[in-house]
Design goal:
It is a single chain. By secondary structure, the protein is an all-alpha fold. It has a domain at 1-51. 87% of the residues lie in helices and 0% in strands. The chain contains 3 helices and no strands. The longest helix has 38 residues, at 30-67. The chain is elongated.
Length: 79
């Protein structure tokens, strides 16, 4: 338990030091960075939505092909 507490304390200190260094060394202002982060996040979400919709269409087409009567007749051949 003691090792876990030391690890958590070290992790917390590392996060605080890293955040402080990142804030001090950033070349842009806070508003510009927030705006850039917001745009990147929005772009990432829209790309994920596009990929999700494309994959959904592909899977629906596969399902339709697998459940169509013609595919079940050719797939099941009497022995």
């Amino acid at each position: 338990m003691r090792r876990l507490m030391f690890f958590a304390g070290g992790l917390l200190c590392g996060v605080m030091i890293g955040a402080t260094v990142a804030l001090l060394l950033t070349p842009a202002s806070g508003d510009a960075m927030r705006e850039d982060a917001r745009h990147r996040f929005d772009d990432m979400l829209s790309e994920a939505r596009r990929a999700s919709e494309q994959r959904r269409r592909e899977l629906e087409a596969q399902l339709a092909q697998m459940t169509s009567p013609a595919s079940t007749e050719t797939a099941i051949k009497p022995a």
